Amino acid sequence: MKSNDIYFLATLLDPRIKTQWIKDNLDDADEVIERLRKFLKATYHREVELPSADEGDLYKSLEYRFLKPYAIDIDTDEEHDIDRYIDTPRIKHKLKAKEDQTQ
To answer: H/E element holding 58?
Structure first.
């Protein structure tokens, strides 16, 4: 398992776990996390080519108009999405111990 990064990527991409499992179970956790970070940056493309049809906000949804002031301009944002994801805390979740786990 340690020679195949796909398992590590699976835990890293689960927002409930992120890097915690790697840190808890590997002696070289920092090295593995950096290797995964490099891999994700090399394979994840931040810039997506979208059609440009700027007609103002006339035909934009309410959601678009609501979120527009909070959008991040990726051209001026220096922090990479991958770094932001990895470096932010895991999401909180609660397991339901009384739930039937056989379903």
So the answer is: none
